[in-house]
């Protein structure tokens, strides 16, 4: 006898891909289907799948064996259905109306969204539209508020640290400054952690504007102490003291005129200030691809199963979070439109300084 | 002008080696020497170096470039100076007296010990003897109380998960049950986390006595669902329901009579109960060797620098610990002679069950 | 309009699994189907699938994305249809008759077998029965004659070398002899290559009987030179000088009475002869699982595509081989029932001795 | 009693660093010193160390434990002492005179140079000046003539393939074309091998000028077959059909005007021709750093020990090479000023086409 379905749940992944998405999908599905008897419908390519009603029912054969796979079996996109503020004033149905329509057509009781800050912001707005949404915190940037950690971050940290390890041998063989640019437009978690893990001599993050003179002094002191090479880790969002004084618009303009990415600029500035030969590596997409490290699989499994438990309880409108080692649900509206920066008194900042790292200030 | 030395600090690593020891030594030394102007003396091969006064002053050239190295530049041993309860009743100086003598001869102001439960227990006893000791929680087993995590664990987790990943392909190609035995005599953190990360179908830990009938049923259900192979993760300290009823002495005796390690026994029991072809891999020393993963380098660096800060403050008699994302010092006597088991209601136990893992009960 | 099928080709994988099998299957299928318009039928679990006529047509969706996957999508078994010498004298159809029957029923024009020495021997016998067979040399042991290299070997070499790297840190931290047992019952390629790659101090292979006194002397000399630890790499098939004088039957009996595997015995012998603390790691199944390294994917792709080209030419009864950088076909009967041992004057033997490795003699 | 020194041998590493240099240095030293009783002097930073007479005697403590280390303990530079054709017509001693002077001052009997094409060309010229030189073929590009393989190549291949593997998950999750630029200015070995190993859909190498229309057609065909993403591997030296018709000077000029590197241009061209969203990763320095893979350690050890054997024999003026599995010495003058391109009928070209890869033509 076929068991009756207890709830129908939609699921989607949105924003940049991150290692652990599939582990989280598996965690949601296993718990929702096998433990609670729900039906799970996967929407394809993020919110676009909801808008266009493109989906498939997720059966065990689909989420078996995906735990260790990178990417997402559902596909993703950067579609933001609320991006136009007056989204429903035009003619014809707008994106959000189409989403609500899809939700109803599929008789969804609830929806799980896996994504970063943009995804959670949209999820929060959909919750306000009356949808039963639960968010999962995914991003390699670790910049989502209200949770101690996001899945994807540890894998990116591992990739970045491996890369720094590799650069060490070239740096030391050639007596060079090797600059490596890692992800992190708005928050410096990845540059800070990989910088400490990789033994970076200089680590620049968006939260601490850098002074090229300080950096030059630090590198020259290293030279005087007999160190013939240096590693400089730069977050995409690193900025100089001068830039930090610009308003948002002026900063954006300054960046548009910059030749190459910030890593190249820092290398040029170092070379100009010290005369040291400097080379650049931009790590790029390698940081978000590939099989998730063990910890991300564990974390994503925890978040996924916790989400399914919250679905079963009807505990909607929340994002699953890890706070002081406890899995909790935090209101999506508390997460929306916010960024978790690195506090300048964070213990890792102190650790970095204690082991002798120059943070640019 | 030579700066005067503010304090003289001893340091040693004791017990089984674990990835991150060198990162922690570097963290202590960089902070103690460069920030606080201390002198650091490294004692060789754990407490044995203290007993025999074998040491060397640690200069920057020694701890430069060791961040990513496995093992310990100081060497280690399993020497336990207090192991004989009546240790000072015999003739001649005993081990502890010799340690105190070494401490005085070297004019030590303080001592940092890096190790697991045995090391911390000794450290606590030395503190009672009047030495200024600070402990650092190192173990791949993650079984030290009062801290959320120990360094070494994440690397062991990564090695174990990689191994499980490798066994998957052989298991699926041959329609076999692959049993993998991982470390963990008294606590099941490693088998539980690697089991979830690797997608183990059965995961056995010391805290949950196993019933071979439950396991057999689970494997047979998998077969009926079309799964032609299974992965079984077994902690060294796993025990059956029957064994869990034995007293300590009887259990020890039973184990001495066991042919091969527990992994082999579980494989035989599965084969007998189900007829499924079962093969064993004992992971062994691979779990404690090699370069530490990024997270262990970060964690060990944090612990090392925090220890040096406590040395500077004179905040002795403590073990550095991570509690709810804060670095704190906990009294060594609270740590001594205790083991942190996996609570049976731990969120990871729940996660494991939710994704369909059989825990043997 | 549907193109007419040019040939119908069977394919199977047999013997222990090895990394690269899927890459080779993909190479055969892509070339046979897309370039030559053949139909490819995959038989499941080696020769058993031929005996029992269990198969499926391989369509692009099956061999897309398998290049980097370990194991084999076809499954494997150690089934040897000719193992009973008088295999057709009994009553009822025997295994080989059933194979021929399957071959005819499926209207096969040819058959590709991927496997090691056992597989090639069977393939040779089937060729004598009139089947159009082409063999591919797969084995982590690299012990197939007439080819310079087999796929699977480089991945096993990488896994074994990584393991030796890990053991180094424990060995050096504890002043121990670490013994690691790697695969290779009949040939020592893997122990020799991983021993040189990992910097093993003693490397034992089946081809060079070992004298424990020589080993002890070498380890003691290391101690006198200030080296406080050693790594000993032992092939499964390593044997002592005394054992090498036994006939096959006596040797087999001696081994059955041995407690534990050869790695354990060598460790005991070293400990007895030198007093050095010795520990053992048996690498086991980890050597054959997991994603193939880049070189094995390249090699398996080359072998697979070459096999398909030979199918198209009707160049049957051959095993694809790499000889002096050329892909050639060698008669299967030249390969059957033979083992490629390491010649004692091989250049790698010389290299090992030159870098100071003790080979046990 | 001190043994008398049989020969005094200089050694240096020159050009870009490559994994395996330290393994080769160790191979030379172990054999030369321990087997033949030579003295080995290491010159620092390539030919610059010879010009400036900067060196140190290499003792066992220096080359112990370096087998698995990336980079080179001797440092390297791109110094080319013969770069000025009329190098001795000016006033004062020129670079080559200084080298000869250093050679005499240190009473060198011979010199081992480890490097790529530039290094070997210089070595050949020094041999003509009367120095006893032996070259070792090091380069990640694998583009040295007269040898089947160079050390460094397999590690670069592994790094590039790992990167392609990582990009696969992002490509598939976002329905994108991911372009990855790998090293290889003059020869396409690395792009060809990593492209086949990573399952690249399009692989561009300098030897085969590409036609963007062919590439576009191939990618569109993939789309029609339901493949929603593609991987494009581009060698630094890839060029279009149009560019291949330019003379050297015009080509150089065209490249100087190109915005970004070739990977970016190919991505733009693909996006323009197909409308597919295309993203770029430039792998850069990651390809030459880090621990050498097992095979490179083996190969470098073989080359190093062979070099020492040739030193002992007085077999000078040669480069050590691997030809059809034999270690041989080839005259340096046969190697100088030449590049080993990928022959367009190479078996790997055929393999690539057989598995369905578009090579741009």
Can you offer a commentary on this structure?
Four copies of one chain form a homotetramer. Chain A is an alpha/beta fold and 361 residues long. Chain A has two domains: 188 residues, 3-Layer(aba) Sandwich (Rossmann fold); 134 residues, Rossmann fold, CATH 3.40.50. In chain A, the strands form two sheets. Chain A has a seven-stranded mixed sheet, sandwiched between helices. The first copy, chain A, has a four-stranded parallel sheet with strand order 7-8-6-9, sandwiched between helices. The longest helix of chain A has 22 residues. The mean pLDDT of chain A is 94. Chain A is 42% helix and 16% strand. The first copy, chain A, is elongated. Chains in contact: A-B, A-D, B-C, C-D. Chains A and B meet through helix 1, helix 6, helix 7, helix 12 and helix 14 of A and helix 1, helix 6, helix 7, helix 12 and helix 14 of B.
Fold blueprint:
Four copies of one chain form a homotetramer.
Chain A: E1 8-13, H1 21-35, E2 39-43, H2 47-52, E3 55-57, H3 60-63, H4 95-105, E4 110-115, H5 117-128, E5 133-137, H6 153-174, E6 177-182, H7 189-198, E7 202-204, H8 212-224, E8 230-235, H9 241-244, H10 248-257, H11 262-274, E9 278-282, H12 294-313, E10 318-323, E11 326-331, H13 332-335, H14 347-354
Parallel strand pairs in A: 1-2, 1-4, 4-5, 5-10, 6-8, 6-9, 7-8
Antiparallel strand pairs in A: 2-3, 10-11
Helix pairs in contact in A: 1-12, 6-7, 7-14, 8-11
In short:
The structure is a homotetramer of 361-residue chains. Chain A is α/β, with parallel strands linked by helices and 361 residues long.
